[in-house]
Amino acid sequence: MEIVRPQWKPPSNDIVSTLPLYRSAPALEVRLEDFELYAMDRLRVLKGISDGLSRGKKPEEMKNLVNDLWKVNMKHPQASEVFNKDVISHFVLRLVYCRTEDLRKWFLSMETALFRHRFRLLTADSQRALLAELGLPYKAVARAEFEVIKEKLVQVARSISQPIPSSDAIFYKVPFEEVPELVAGRRIFICKGHAYVAMNQVVSLVVTQFRSLLSKALILTNRKWTSMIREQEKDRLTPIVESLCSSYLGPDYSQPNEFAEISVKDIDLVAKSSFPLCMRHLFEKLREDHHLKHGGRMQLGLFLKGVGLKLDDALAFWKAEFSQKVGAERFDKEYAYSIRHNYGREGKRTDYTPYSCQKIISLTPSVGDHHGCPYRHFSEDNLRAALSRMGVNNGAVEDVMDKVRNRHYQLACTLTFEAIHGLSCDAGINHPNQYFSDSQKILKLKSHSSEQGESTAD
Amino acid sequence: MVEIDNGRDDMLIDGQRLGNAATDGFNANYLKLYYGKLFPHADIFKWLSYANDGKHPACDKSYFGRREFSFTLDNDIYLRFQSFSNESELENSIKEKCPFKIDIGPVYSVDPAKRHAYSQSGNNVFTPVERELIFDIDISDYDNVRYCCSGADVCLDCWPLMTVAIKVIDISLRDDFGFNHILWVFSGRRGVHCWVCDGKARRLTNEQRTAIADYFRVYKGNENSSKGVSLTGHALHPFLVRSYTEVLKDFFETKLLSSQNLFSTQERYEKILEMIPDESVTSEIRGKWESSKRSSISKEDINVVRWEQLKHTLQSGQKKAQGLRRCVEEIVFSFTYPRIDMEVSKHMNHLLKAPFCVHPKTGRVCVPIDPKHCEEFDPTLVPTLSQLLEELNIGGLRADDDNECDRTSLGKSLSFFRSSFLRPLLKSCKEEMESLHNAKLQQSKNSLSW
């Protein structure tokens, strides 16, 4: 085994000491066990960020969370190794998460979130240095222009409860396309296509750039992986890489479990017993209105696919409902395509994966929509009513509402699961299909033991 | 719906006898004539070529041919990924297939008709590369704030909601985002479509499209939460302030209040009181209104009176501190702010119906709407297919083969499309092409001169 030779010694063990852009893989030799251990440690950080985001933590809470995660997982007894551990773990995970679009997407958002928080902790000088390193050629807005738009800048700052810019505040003028997240939140003043970015928002510019560099890099890594590395490393790295992502993130439920296969006639039964509230609600609305808008069809349709509904059964199921409202012909014409599409039989022929809790929580249901996460998107009254219809008792409803108020939507769902099944669910609910399969397991066990009870009584 | 009363049972068009004029103004035979004589194939081709059909060395000859068209045919057959390499292919195909609906998709990296040939190579090379930034606004999404109609129905009392949507979005697209080439189109029945065609709009990524759609997103209600609009922060964003003071407030107070009778019954005003989070205020107001029901027989519009009372109560001195002032704005926004179908705008590969299609249910043509004069637009006066053919028929007797279109009521819409949208668009496309070309030449010169 070779000893790792650090290329460069960072000054301290602190998170703010240095923030690499991960432009190129390090020319380091790494011990095989470090390869895996470092990656696991970083994965713990990213997974922690992912959990935090899906619980809807506020930026301030996220800051502390990321800080703690980093300190706990990314330290190293040798100060000189900290920087290397950062870079090595990043590049190992690139290999792990380059291989499918969903993996890339997840890795990209978590690494970007991590980068964002680490950037915020840098000193102003280090931030400017990084800006320069990224080659972002922005000039501060000139005094005269600043005076003209000052009133608007103040308005924006007040609207997002930020300190009012002083007269010597620095703003950068950039094309609005480069700060999409600031545009989306109406957190900047935009005029004629230019966005006026305050110094404390520069992180957005940097993050956008970081994200796009990493996104491109992941595509390239994927190409290299499939064309060379996988084969070359098939006895050494490939097994590590392949086990890393599945061991940690759990299944994505794209392939229904071989035991769990349901047919159309069973759906009503299992919907009552084992669907999480989000799916139960969609299911009931579909039965009631014989229609669901696009978002609802996607969320429920992919869930049912994950549950084990075969394409032909899915078509029959949706048709039975929709044809009552729009007629069988219109169903065949307008809706059947998208169901086959979900099953990878149309369009670009991707076999789509069922939505995870994180995805569902992040959706934005609008007028006429029933999808999304009830714990997040229902009003309090509607949620209470829905829970009691599910058979959750009053005490448990209060516990659930408490979690909801603190924006712990998945914990709220977990409590609901426990209240209904009368058993604890230690792993928590992360995926509607996990809710379903856990519920089915419990119900099978119960019916099994009651059968046994009967037979001994005989 | 405009019914044609031509005093005849049959219409004579182009020497052929047609059956009775269909009451819904739409049938396949009419459509064939429409595509043959009136549909502006050439203009659609010019538009979607974005000057790439010219002689300039920087023209991308493959550009138009990589655009997806999608046809919905009479017998409910749905043809996706149609593509055409030139104007006559497009025109011939439309005339031959006579689609009930033509949708326009994105420009792909390769000819969409040949996508399967590329999909073999593994690395997803078949991918959308350009697409207008589009918006779709449907009146049916306003059902919880209109009492005159519901679903796909629309009348002159609720249509102004669309006018307001056009104004708010159009002003922001131009002033905030700096876009210039914006086409608004009547969707044929219950809403409007918007096509932003500037080069930089067409090249936006999905993430950037989503950001713009989110910028416009204020209404957050869904079927299971009545929350609607919640405006937080110490002030409103300049975009919201402008929308409120220049468009929404005035529209709400001078039009919508009375036209929708927002306060006329208990059921209706209760819906508004629900938006006020302070019990003491709502019960105070409620008390006033319940007693006034019996006493006052004012000549003034009860909706206006009650709105003024509500505003007064919310904005009066001691209530200000409790943050209730924002409620006034929240109510106005809830009732009037545009409700965009977000999904349509977010992704490049969403299809949108082409302008100048005929809506199969209403028979009305999807004509452009001038955002500068959008309050004058009347959806009930939009020409229908049967009306147009009738006009064509009358004109035909005067025998003059060119510009048949100009003699019909579609002529005005077409000349607006050409002069206000197409001409300025193509001019700037050519300029952009020229300057890019020059920059490239300059660059290659520089690289040659070491």
TrEMBL record, chain A:
<feature type="binding site">
    <location>
        <position position="278"/>
    </location>
    <ligand>
        <name>[4Fe-4S] cluster</name>
    </ligand>
</feature>
<dbReference type="Pfam" id="PF04104">
    <property type="entry name" value="DNA_primase_lrg"/>
</dbReference>
<dbReference type="GO" id="GO:0006270">
    <property type="term" value="P:DNA replication initiation"/>
</dbReference>
<comment type="function">
    <text>DNA primase is the polymerase that synthesizes small RNA primers for the Okazaki fragments made during discontinuous DNA replication.</text>
</comment>
<keyword id="KW-0479">Metal-binding</keyword>
<comment type="similarity">
    <text>Belongs to the eukaryotic-type primase large subunit family.</text>
</comment>
<keyword id="KW-0411">Iron-sulfur</keyword>
<dbReference type="GO" id="GO:0051539">
    <property type="term" value="F:4 iron, 4 sulfur cluster binding"/>
</dbReference>
<feature type="binding site">
    <location>
        <position position="357"/>
    </location>
    <ligand>
        <name>[4Fe-4S] cluster</name>
    </ligand>
</feature>
<dbReference type="Pfam" id="PF26466">
    <property type="entry name" value="DNA_primase_lrg_N"/>
</dbReference>
<feature type="binding site">
    <location>
        <position position="373"/>
    </location>
    <ligand>
        <name>[4Fe-4S] cluster</name>
    </ligand>
</feature>
<dbReference type="InterPro" id="IPR058560">
    <property type="entry name" value="DNA_primase_C"/>
</dbReference>
<keyword id="KW-0639">Primosome</keyword>
<dbReference type="GO" id="GO:0046872">
    <property type="term" value="F:metal ion binding"/>
</dbReference>
<dbReference type="GO" id="GO:0006269">
    <property type="term" value="P:DNA replication, synthesis of primer"/>
</dbReference>
<feature type="binding site">
    <location>
        <position position="413"/>
    </location>
    <ligand>
        <name>[4Fe-4S] cluster</name>
    </ligand>
</feature>
<keyword id="KW-0408">Iron</keyword>
<keyword id="KW-0238">DNA-binding</keyword>
<keyword id="KW-0235">DNA replication</keyword>
<dbReference type="InterPro" id="IPR016558">
    <property type="entry name" value="DNA_primase_lsu_euk"/>
</dbReference>
<dbReference type="GO" id="GO:0003677">
    <property type="term" value="F:DNA binding"/>
</dbReference>
<keyword id="KW-0004">4Fe-4S</keyword>
TrEMBL record, chain B:
<keyword id="KW-0240">DNA-directed RNA polymerase</keyword>
<dbReference type="GO" id="GO:0005658">
    <property type="term" value="C:alpha DNA polymerase:primase complex"/>
</dbReference>
<dbReference type="InterPro" id="IPR014052">
    <property type="entry name" value="DNA_primase_ssu_euk/arc"/>
</dbReference>
<keyword id="KW-0862">Zinc</keyword>
<comment type="similarity">
    <text>Belongs to the eukaryotic-type primase small subunit family.</text>
</comment>
<keyword id="KW-0548">Nucleotidyltransferase</keyword>
<dbReference type="GO" id="GO:0046872">
    <property type="term" value="F:metal ion binding"/>
</dbReference>
<keyword id="KW-0639">Primosome</keyword>
<keyword id="KW-0804">Transcription</keyword>
<keyword id="KW-0479">Metal-binding</keyword>
<keyword id="KW-0235">DNA replication</keyword>
<dbReference type="GO" id="GO:0003899">
    <property type="term" value="F:DNA-directed RNA polymerase activity"/>
</dbReference>
<dbReference type="GO" id="GO:0006269">
    <property type="term" value="P:DNA replication, synthesis of primer"/>
</dbReference>
<dbReference type="InterPro" id="IPR002755">
    <property type="entry name" value="DNA_primase_S"/>
</dbReference>
<keyword id="KW-0808">Transferase</keyword>
<protein>
    <recommendedName>
        <fullName>DNA primase</fullName>
        <ecNumber>2.7.7.-</ecNumber>
    </recommendedName>
</protein>
<dbReference type="Pfam" id="PF01896">
    <property type="entry name" value="DNA_primase_S"/>
</dbReference>
